Structures are given as C-alpha cells and as structure tokens.
Amino acid sequence: MKQKFFYGALIVSFLLSGVAHYTDMSSTVQFIISAIAIVFVAGFLGKATESVAHYAGQRLGGFLNATFGNAAELIISIFLIKEGLFDMVKASLTGAIIGNLLLVLGLSLFAGGLKYKEQKFNISLAGHNGTLMLMAVVALIIPAMFAGTKVITPKETDTLSLIVAGILIVAYIFWLYFSMVTHKNYLSDQEEMEPDHHEEPAWSKSKSVLFLVVATVMVALVSEWLVGTLHDFTTQFGFTELFLGAFIIAIVGNAAEHSAAVMMALKNKIGTSVEIAIGSSLQIALFVAPVLVFVSFLFGETMDFVFTTIELVAIGVAVIIAKSITQDGKTNWYEGLLLMLVYVILGVAFFLV
Amino acid sequence: MKQKFFYGALIVSFLLSGVAHYTDMSSTVQFIISAIAIVFVAGFLGKATESVAHYAGQRLGGFLNATFGNAAELIISIFLIKEGLFDMVKASLTGAIIGNLLLVLGLSLFAGGLKYKEQKFNISLAGHNGTLMLMAVVALIIPAMFAGTKVITPKETDTLSLIVAGILIVAYIFWLYFSMVTHKNYLSDQEEMEPDHHEEPAWSKSKSVLFLVVATVMVALVSEWLVGTLHDFTTQFGFTELFLGAFIIAIVGNAAEHSAAVMMALKNKIGTSVEIAIGSSLQIALFVAPVLVFVSFLFGETMDFVFTTIELVAIGVAVIIAKSITQDGKTNWYEGLLLMLVYVILGVAFFLV
Amino acid sequence: MKQKFFYGALIVSFLLSGVAHYTDMSSTVQFIISAIAIVFVAGFLGKATESVAHYAGQRLGGFLNATFGNAAELIISIFLIKEGLFDMVKASLTGAIIGNLLLVLGLSLFAGGLKYKEQKFNISLAGHNGTLMLMAVVALIIPAMFAGTKVITPKETDTLSLIVAGILIVAYIFWLYFSMVTHKNYLSDQEEMEPDHHEEPAWSKSKSVLFLVVATVMVALVSEWLVGTLHDFTTQFGFTELFLGAFIIAIVGNAAEHSAAVMMALKNKIGTSVEIAIGSSLQIALFVAPVLVFVSFLFGETMDFVFTTIELVAIGVAVIIAKSITQDGKTNWYEGLLLMLVYVILGVAFFLV
Question: Are B274 and B326 within 8 A, CB to CB?
C-alpha cells in the first residue's frame, strides 16, 4: 500500500517535473514540482543503494551506502558549479551540514524524547564523530582565515584549497577503513539494534543494479531542472542565494535522510538517528565538499575553499552544540528542542541578510 | 544574633542610602552607601522569595526562586535602560555572567577544595547547563556577527534582536518545564543533599508576601539611587563604563548569591554551589537579557542584542573554561584558582581599555 | 653500543658546528650542522637533568625535569630576543605548542595504535591538562584581542602583557604544587607504568651536576650559532620567518622529546606519551612564553604577548583537537592520523603565507 503510493508519487512527480521543464512553465511552478520530485527520486536512489549494498557484502556495501548517501546533494552541486554559482554551492553545503546537525538531529531527539524519557547510544562513536567534525571545521576555517588576511594571492588560495581538499579526502578514506575494517565492532551498537539491515531486499541482484543506474539518472535530470529555475526564483521572491542554498536546497536535497532519522528515533534506535545525522554532515564536509573543489578544478575554474564568516560561524556553532549534546551518549526532548531553536535563530539570521 | 545584625544593617544602610540621595551628598558617598545597601536589600529579597516559594509549593516555588533570583540585577538594568545607558547594561550583563562563572564558581571550588580534597556532583546537570550556556553564547554571537558585517540595517538588527530574545525566553521557559516537571528527579542530587530547603520558613504566609513586596520596592529604590550616581562617578574616577558595569555593578548586584555559593561549598554541597553559579548565569543570559530587550522596546528605543567583541570573548571564554572544569563532575582547589585567575586577567584587560 | 654512538655523535656534531661557525662557512652548511648538533646537545641536557633529578629527590627532581625540559627552547628564544627577532620567537613558541600537540602526540598515537588496537590512560590527567591548555589559549587571546581593537596604547599593551605573563607563571607554579604535592597520586598512572624512573642513574651525583652545567653551556653555544644563521638562511631560501620559526626551529628544538614520546607509545605507555606531549606544550605556554616576556623586559624592550591571528588560530585549533581526542582516555591509530593531518594542513598554510 505504502509502497504503491511511493512509486506512484515517484513517477508522477518525475514526469510532471520534466513536463514543467520542457514546456517552460513559470519558474515558481517548475521549482515547486522539481523540489517535490527530488524528494522522491532521492528516496528511490536510497532504496536502490541499500539493495545493491546488500548483495555487495557488508564492507563494499557500507562504502556504497556512505558514498551514495549524499549523491543527490553531490549531483545538484555539480550542476550549480557548472552554472558558476559557487556561492550557492557553499551555502548549500553549509545548509546541509547545519540542517543535519541541528534540524535532523534536533527533530529526532525531540520526537524520540517525547516517546521515551531518556534514549542512549554508544559513546565511543559520538566521540569519534565529534572529533572528525572538529577537524572538518578546522579544515574549512584555515583557508578562509588566510584568504581573509590577504597575505596570499588568489592563486595560492586555490592551491591551498586543493591541498586541504586532498587531505580531507585522505582523512575520509582512512575513516572508512578505520570504521569498516580495523575497528568495525568497536564503534557499532547498531549490529544488535538494527535488524532491518538483515531483511531480505525487495529486488534481485540485477534489478538492484539496474535501479541504481536509473535512480542516479533520474536524480541527475531533476537536479538539472531544479537548478535551472533558481536564478529566476531568487529574483522573483527576493530570497538571497544564501538563504535559498542554505535552507531550501539543503532541506529538499536531504529530505530522505531526514525522515529516516526521525523514524529510527521513534523506534528507540537513537544511535542510528545520531549516526545518520552526524554521518551525513561528515560525508558532506569530508567528502562532498572536497570532491566539488576538484570537480570545479577539472571544469577549469577552481571553486576555492573560502567560506564566508557567517557560514563558518553557522557550521562552527552547529558542530559545537551537536558535540556538546551528544557527548554523554544520552538524549532527551529538551536537547532536541535546543538544537531546533538554534536552527531557527540561524534561519532568521540568514533570511534577514 | 546574626539575624539581628542583618536586619539592623538592612534598615540602617537603606535609610542612609535614602538620606544620601535626597540630601544630595557627593556622588562617591552616595555610590558607596547605596552599593552597600543593595547587598542587604538583595539579601532580604532573596529571603522573602524563598519564604513565599515555600508556601507556593515546589513547582511554583521553584519558578519564583528562579525568576526572583536575579530581580536586583533586572531592576538595576531597567533603571539603566531608562537612562539610555545601553552599553552599561550590556557590560553589567556580561559582568554578571562572567562573575558567576569565574569568580563565584572559582571561589566556591577554591574554598571547598581547601577543605575537601575532591568534591563531586551530578554530571548530568553539568552537561545540560553547559549546553544551555553554549546556546546562550550562540544566541549572543549571532546578532553581533551580522551587525558586524554591515549587511543588515540597524532596523533589521533590532528585529533580529527581538526574535533572538523571544527564542531565548522560549528556551528558558521550556528549560523550567524540563527541569521542574518532566525530568525533575533526573537532574537533581540536591534533594538529598539540601535539607535546608525543608526547614520551617521564618515568616507566616501573609507576612512572606508582604515582605516580598516591601523587598522589591526597596531594591527598586536603592537601584534607582545607585544608578543616579554612576555618571558622576565615572567622570570623577576615570573608570570606563565597561569596567564599572562589568565588575563593580556585577559584583554588588550578585553579592547575595556569591556568599550563598561559597557557604554551600564549605558544607561540601558543591553541587549546589555549581548550580547557583551556573544557574544564575543561565538566568541572566536566557531570561534577564532577553527581557531587557523587550523592556527597552516598550520604552520606545530597542536595545539591540549586539554585544562588543570584547564582551563576547569574555563570555565565551568564561563559558568554555567553566564547562571544561565542571564536565567531569569532580572539583578541586586548583580548578577554583584557575577560574579566579582567568577572572583577574579579564578584569585587568577591562580596566585598561 | 647505542650509548657510544650517541656520545660520538654529540661530540662530533658539536665540534663541527663550532668549526662551521668560526670558519664562517656558508649559512646553509652552518644551519644544517648546528640543527643536527642541537638535537644531540638537547638530548644530552635531558639525560643530565634526569640524572640530577634522581639525586634531588622526587619533588625537587620533578620540578627540575619540568623546568629544564624546555631549556633548549628557552635558550634559543633568548638569543632570538637579543637579536630583536620577536616575531620569530612567537612563531617558534607557536610551533613548539602545535608541534607537541599535533605532531608528537599524533605520531605517538599513530605508532602506538598500529601496534595496539586501543591504548588507555588516566582520564583525570587529560581533563586537567585540557583545562590548563584552554587557560593558556585564553591568556594568549586576550592581549591580542585588545591590541587588535586599538583601544589601548602600545604601552598599555606591554603592561597587560607583563601582568598576563605574571598570572600565567603563578598558574604554572601552583600547578606544580598541585600535581606534585597536594594531589600527587590523584593524577598519575605513571608510578606503576614507568619502572624506568627507578633505574639506577648512569652517573654519580657530582658527575651529574657537572654534566648538567656542561650540557647547558653546550645548548647555549649551539643555539647562538644556529640563530646567527637564520637571517641569511631566510633571505636565501625565501622561507618566511613564520614557517622557519613555527616548523623548522620548533621541530629541531624539541627532537629529544619527540622520540621519547613515540618510544613510550610503542611500549604501550601511552599515558606517558600524552603527558610528554601535552605537558611540554603547557610548559611552553605557561612558563617559557611568560618568562620570555620578562626576559625581553629586562633586555630593555618588552616583547608583547600579542600573537598574530594565524598563530592564535593554529594554537586554538591544536588545543581543541588534542583536547577532543584525549578526553575519553582511549586512543587509536586513526586519532593519531587525524592529529598529523591537521598539522600538515597548518604546515601548508604557514608555508604559503
């Protein structure tokens, strides 16, 4: 029943989005329809990834899950880079990080906390993730700081950005190796808590691979249609690129993960919610963002790693608050509320700029 | 015996302060006398609040205690706002926060640590308070950051200040609900440790209410007299508004809490000391400060929420150090000394500016 | 065998360094030879200090160890101050702090983590050291912040620098008193883990004192020779003072401690490695740096305590990452890798400036 509705909505929203694009409807209509479509195609991509991951075995599967997890975000950003909208890319990366750390995590803790007085999860994982997030913040702050002092040329800033991006990717690859190979059992409290992972997948092996390809193509198409509307959309409504990138794009592009995290919290699997929210931010900071720097380099014009002060403060604030709240391995509704309130404060501030 | 001395000093200092004000004595004399008087009337207000709280039942009582706890600070600030001394209001809010986190907490840990080798308290409470303080710092930093970038107009800064103030008050109200209703037992190690709360109050119900009214009026009068002297006092001695607000006003206005916290530490109830010190900072950041923004709005000219960089660094530093020291739930004399040394460094810096 | 090689290398490198200096060889040759020599004379000073400490009894011995531990760093810096190279002094202090917290600690955790899956140490110690490092960061930030706002004159900045330096030394002396007298057993997991300390020293009492004097003189001479080459060396190779001070001088001046920390990690005494790395940073921040401020004051021109933003960010980043990684009392290879990667990012940034 639920399944049928999902696939119906997937196909209808995808087709409508294509029709709106090719019949050149008003930007607002195009934007709304393709924003809805992206939620469903991203969800479909998630299902396909999980199914392929099942057949690929746990190690490769974990890797596939981790890298395809933010595929929608990555693809949208590549189209934004092609359009030269570097500022909106950085705003949407910022938005994805703070959205995951404040809104997704906050909603999960709040919803879970209303149902259960106190929820617990593995403290080691929280500690590691916190340190990794700090490292990501450091890596983002350093190029900005040097670019700000004007002691280095734009060309040197690009070099520094590429080196920092390379180091972040190295850190990310070793993180996968650490968490999936050398210290696999050390970090997880999920094995026991997540029987879902051992469920039979819905599709056969070949069907899963086919669907993964189809889903990726669908995400790419809808992303392109969505990005095409943004310019008109900003001029019409007076939204700043910053607000649009950091809040609208980020929420739409991560909708699938949002609902998964909240579902898990309501099933008292708060550890999984925390991992989805923080893990997703980590992927964006340590993998998606640096990959985009290299992508822009290959496109001919390097997108530097210089985030604005406002973006850096927003990311720094989100990381510090999320780290402080998760470090004791226990959560409650009030902690969730606090995270959401900080998100609202940042949202108001970004909206007013 | 002690009681008699207290009431004697209360009445004498209050009357002298009034005489000094109405006979127009020199500002220095007026300042000194009313500064002494404010210590006693604030102490009297504290006693009256506690007594009324006793009759009001635990929940309403807790709320009364919490909101009247910084009544003196609030009333002084309202008179400062009426005089248009916005900078001094912010300086005294800053001073109250760092004074509680560094001086009061430092003195308590130091005094308690000289008597007992190691003192312990409930870690959950420390974690929560730390996160709340971080949120308060975030809320203070964001308007300052945006105002600093000049991308928003003063009018938008006022709007942002009012919204942030509203969100902080929401956070504070839910914090009261969380800590007094849904997770009452979860956070407290005081119930067992504080038999004082169950002592018989000194006054009958009607007397308590009467005294609460009288005490509030006395605090209001002395505050007005004190504030009246400040302008002359700064010009005469060359103290900056910043130093006067952040150190003199803050110490005088919180004297009652200071002595209570140190007393508790010497009775090995370090958890109560920590709660007085951190709880009082929290009230100021999450309740007094935002209420003052609304008060100034009602007076016709909005006091924005834009603290100076120096004030923000001072608050940030105090929160981070206090959080780091309290997060293990164990304290000793050296931690107290460190807090006091940081307070001295900040004091010297504020004095030199 | 190992011993013979060490003393041979010590004497040969020392003599060659002197020959290179007095025969006025090229700056590059002089720099390289004296950089090699400083590693061996610093190692010799370390051995002599330990031997004298053995005879002096545990308390005075601990104090000697702590204060002579960074003698090489201190002596090099005094020669830099005599030459008026204040910026290079601050850069090398910065470099010593981040080198210890990121490179030494990172290498120890990495090497130890490859051999042992998880290594553990006393959490109380880590907490205390973390708080002290935070205090040091605060003390460094405050003068810089005020100097930056231009609200105080250079003369007032000097006064503030001297007062802050004095407070840091007070904090350091009380830290020695706390950790060696009042809470000696509370912080140590070394007593049991470090039988080496109870080994018979290699030399008699009088020989030890003699060697301590000889070693100090040798360090002083080689430091002077090394510093003499720096000016030419920077102009010839285009290295900035910042990079030279923060990376080359800092690595050379702390080489002895580096190898000791890694050795301990490989013997699964990770607590000792952590203490060497963090303890050494603390000595530099709380003792060497403030002493240098007073030394410059005695030389006639006060070196203020105003570090550049880049240096402060580097120190702040190193402290926060190291604190985050050590606060759970457990370490693994990936944490070591992260620390080293952050060091590389900072190194690249400093090199490009």
Answer: yes
CA distances for C289 relative to C104, C131, C166, C286, C292, angstroms: 20, 18, 11, 7, 5
Q: Kindly list the partner chains of chain B, i.e. chains with 3 or more CB atom pairs below 8 Å.
A: A, C
SS (H, E, C) chain C: CHHHHHHHHHHHHHHHHHHHHHCCCCHHHHHHHHHHHHHHHHHHHHHHHHHHHHHHCHHHHHHHHHHHCCHHHHHHHHHHHHCCCHHHHHHHHHHHHHHHHHHHHHHHHHHHHHHCCCEECCHHHHHHHHHHHHHHHHHHHHHHHHHHHCCCCHHHHHHHHHHHHHHHHHHHHHHHHHHHHHCHHHHCCHHHHCHHHHCCCCCCHHHHHHHHHHHHHHHHHHHHHHHHHHHHHHHHHCCCHHHHHHHHHHHHHCHHHHHHHHHHHHCCCHHHHHHHHHHHHHHHHHHHHHHHHHHHHHCCCCCCCCCCHHHHHHHHHHHHHHHHHHCCCEECHHHHHHHHHHHHHHHHHHHHC
Contacts of A352 in chain B (CB under 8 A): 146, 152, 156, 159-160
Work out the minimum CA distance from C213 to partner chain B, whole angstroms.
34
Interface of C with A in 284-343 (CB under 8 A): 309-310, 313, 317, 320-321, 324-325, 327-328, 330, 332-335, 337-338, 341-342
Partner residue facing C146 (CB), from B332, B337, B353: B353
pLDDT tens-digit series, residues C207-253:
888 888 888 888 888 887 887 787 777 777 777 777 777 777 777 77
> For C168, which residue in chain B has the nearest alpha carbon?
B341
Nearest residue of A to residue C342, measured between CA atoms:
A135
Confidence category of residue B148, pLDDT binned at 50, 70, 90: low
Supply the pLDDT for residue A192: 43
**B74: Cα separation from own chain's centroid:** 9
Q: How many CB pairs under 8 A join B and C?
A: 79
Q: Are A326 and A109 in contact (CB under 8 A)?
A: no
Q: Is the pLDDT of residue B187 over 60?
A: no
Predicted confidence pLDDT, tens digits, chain A (353 residues): 578 888 888 999 999 999 998 988 888 888 889 888 888 888 888 788 778 877 876 566 666 766 676 777 788 888 888 888 888 888 888 888 998 899 989 999 999 999 988 888 877 767 777 788 888 888 888 888 777 666 677 788 888 889 999 999 999 889 888 887 787 766 554 444 444 445 566 788 888 888 888 888 888 888 878 877 877 777 777 777 777 777 777 777 777 677 778 888 888 888 888 888 888 888 888 888 999 999 988 888 888 888 888 888 889 889 988 888 888 788 889 999 999 999 998 888 888 77
B353 vs C contacts (CB less than 8 Å): 146, 149, 151-152
In chain B, residues with a C-beta closer than 8 Å to the C-beta of C174 are 334, 337
In this complex, do A171 and C341 lie within 8 Å of one another by their Cβ atoms? yes
- Using CB atoms and an 8 Å cut-off, which of residues 79-138 of chain A contact chain C? 123-124, 127-128, 130-132, 134-135, 138
Lookup result for tokens 């800092």: C250
At residue A331, the 3 state secondary structure works out as strand
C-alpha C49: how far from chain center: 15
What's the pTM?
0.83
Q: Which chains touch C (3 or more CB pairs under 8 A)?
A: A, B
| CB within 8 Å: C134 and B334 | no
| Partners of residue C183 in chain B, C-beta under 8 Å | 117, 332, 334
The closest CB to that of B135, out of A310, A327, A342, belongs to A342
Domains and CATH numbers, chain C: 2-352 (1.20.1420.30)
Token output for C9: 């290398």
